[in-house]
Amino acid sequence: MSGAPPLQHRARKRFGQNFLHDPRVIQRIVEAIDPRPGQTIIEIGPGQAALTRRLVQRAGHVTAIEIDRDLAAWLREEFTPEQLTLIEADALRLDWSTVAADPVRVVGNLPYNISSPLLFRLMEYAERVTDQHFMLQKEVVDRMVAPPGSRTYGRLSVMLQVRYRMTKLFDVPRGAFNPPPKVTSSIVRMVPRAAAELPEMDFATFGRVVAAAFNQRRKILRNALGEVAGATAFAAAGVDPMARAETLAVDDYVRLTRAVAAETNAA
Ligand code: SAM
């Protein structure tokens, strides 16, 4: 770390910049991640290096993806190439296969405006990921880990829960950031399920079934899934067509997906 002068940077709203400044919170997050020397750590949005500095101290090296040109230039000054590989890019457009070649650990205090698309993008690389630790809006984390039947259970919950074991770790108050965001944040741990634990099914069909079910979540499933699943699929899956999307467990969606595929093949 170069000892370069402190950064004079005005937080850019369009990049969702809320920088962590509370040392106890930063410490707690890094303790939860527990980076070890030799691990491949990828940080999304290092910003002013609040987490990066500690991650480098503990792991020796970090690969970071930063969209902001000024911050990227500053980070290159602040760290040596042995400490930090800086990729100046949009994490949403990045070809992740170029950075996720090893088993990687992904971390980030994510910009709120890109959190859902980024979670879906990273799902494509879940096989190469050991774990992910993210700071997100509390409301988003609550949706991710929500159980069936709860008010916040939805498409995000089902799509992520089928792929990851997820644990909400703790909340982070607004005051830990500069500038403070409008809402409370939370830290979530996501561990991809092993191949043997993943259900055998067509994941694209699963995505279609879940999207259709929750698109019209107030409707009964028979109506919401009218275009996707017929009466035989409901019967074969043992799913009540009069039920509503939020009452079905992830396993129910898996069975429904298999039944939809069988129904399509038989047609
Ligand atoms: N990690 C720092 C911290 O905890 O203080 C900064 C967190 S700030 C909420 C989000 C960071 O992500 C900013 O540095 C921002 O410039 C960067 N960022 C925003 N959109 C991005 C994108 N699409 N790809 C990569 N980085 C992005």
Query: Architecture of the largest domain in CATH?
Result: 3-Layer(aba) Sandwich
Instruction: Identify the bound ligands.
Output: S-adenosylmethionine
- Rounded to the nearest angstrom, the distance between the terminal CA atoms is 64 Å
Percent helix, as a range, is: 25-40%
Biggest sheet strand order reads 4-3-2-5-6-9-7
Write down how many β-strands occur, each being a DSSP E stretch of 2 or more residues. Answer: 9
**What is the CATH homology-level superfamily of the largest domain?**
Vaccinia Virus protein VP39
The level-1 CATH class of the largest domain: Alpha Beta
How is the topology of this model organized?
Elements: E1 19-20, H1 23-33, E2 40-44, H2 50-59, E3 62-66, H3 69-78, E4 84-88, E5 104-109, H4 115-123, E6 129-137, H5 138-145, H6 155-161, E7 164-172, E8 177-178, E9 185-192, H7 203-215, H8 221-224, H9 231-237, H10 250-266
Parallel strand pairs: 2-3, 2-5, 3-4, 5-6
Antiparallel strand pairs: 1-8, 6-9, 7-9
Give a description of the structure.
The protein is an alpha/beta fold and 267 residues long. It contains 10 helices and 9 strands. The chain is 36% helix and 19% strand. The strands form 2 sheets. The protein has a 7-stranded mixed sheet. The protein has a two-stranded antiparallel ribbon with strand order 1-8. Strand 2 (40-44), helix 2 (50-59) and strand 3 (62-66) form a beta-alpha-beta unit. It is elongated. The relative contact order is 0.11. The mean pLDDT is 94. Bound molecules: S-adenosylmethionine (SAM). S-adenosylmethionine is lined by residues 15-20, 44-48, 50-51, 65-68, 71, 90-92, 109, 111, 114.
